[in-house]
Amino acid sequence: MKTVGLIVEYNPFHNGHRLHLQRSLQTAGAEASIAVMSGPFTQRGEPALLSKRARTEMALAAGVDLVIELPVLYALQPAEWFAFGAVSLLDATGVADSICFGSESGEVAPLEELAARMQGGESPVMQAALKQALAEGLSFPAAYAKAASEQGGGGSQAASLLGNPNDTLGLHYVLALRRLASTMAPLAVRREQAGYHDAGLPAGGQIASATAVRAALARGTGGLDEAAPYLPAGSLRVLRREAEAGRILTAGWEALAQPLLAALITRAPEELALVPEVSEGLEHRIAAALPRLPVPGVEALLAAIKTKRYTRTRLQRLLAHALLNHGGPLFGRDSLAQGPQYIRVLGFSPKGRALLKTMKKTAKLPIVVRAADFDHPQLQLDIRASAVHASAFPSPQIKEMYADYYAPPIILGDSDSDEPPKGDLK
């Protein structure tokens, strides 16, 4: 069964995601799809709006066949390691023939050409160029675009491509494929209508950015009604149920402000320096900002420590690492270069079940159906992150904090009740 791989967050799953899924299947000539999805925290360092189980249910209802989790170790990383972790998982399934991503350009060839010239983003020449661009005061994305453009021959096309967030991620997907010597083909579909950061719901349209949908949902029931035209029926059903149950994190980071601030205040600067993505004295900037905050909130803290050098995305990831007590050798480059060490199944359709049966023969990593049946440091990070995320819901429940450890995968069609579907792999 020809299968296309997708790298997603579905925060939440909206009509643009459904269009990407449909076009990916068409572009790849595929019969089935596998989505590698971030768990409770996204690559931008933000807590997800919904649990990964709710987002998995949305994806399956819209036609995704198999959802597997990108470990939080890789989900909360800059583009290089985020992409490497996700591509490694798709490659490890042994059943994905291609990977298809949305991009502003909708073209793969320029990214492949640039990747070939770069010869790996971690080369000494690339690092020197990146360091110089950062020293000029550019933000990290702008500095990376400048350095990669120069190393790739200085072409204006490279600089233009790397000014786009999804094209930049696409480059890292291509680099990861080369690094793994993977046989999966890279494919791209053009991102339609709503831009990555578009904050408003377009009048009369059916596609809005996830940013705009989340902003509408933060306004409560009325906002959910406003967002309804931009959501598939399955997503809307899940959102209404989760809202009623108090399991939507519309407050975002502010819902985690108290434990985060406690985690920061109780660390000395030398301890903050050990948190992933803290460098160049940033620990002292954080320590100095904390007692001067006008209000005890995350937005206030971000405003106090943000500079041209340190983007909001990087700072949010740093804060997530601090909240989750991340650090140590597991987060070093040598460890990250080993890739994810298991394939965590979050949910599947009937086609997904068939893929899993094939994967029993083709997979390069252990397939984890229930976390309680497998033990690995990477997986322990996932379980802790899910518990912390669930604790921030408006109506937190102990069973939700432990759900990631005991809950089986979601099986499409198992339940139409008001409770999340349950099931196991047999």
TrEMBL record:
Its EC number is 6.3.4.-. One of its GO terms (biological process) is tRNA modification. It is found in: Cytoplasm. It comes from the Bacteria. Its main location: cytoplasm. ATP binds at residues 7-20, 102, 166, 191. InterPro entries: Rossmann-like_a/b/a_fold, tRNA(Met)_cyd_acetate_ligase. Keywords: ATP-binding, Cytoplasm, Ligase, Nucleotide-binding, RNA-binding, Transferase, tRNA processing, tRNA-binding. This is tRNA(Met) cytidine acetate ligase. It comes from Saccharibacillus sacchari DSM 19268. The gene is tmcAL.
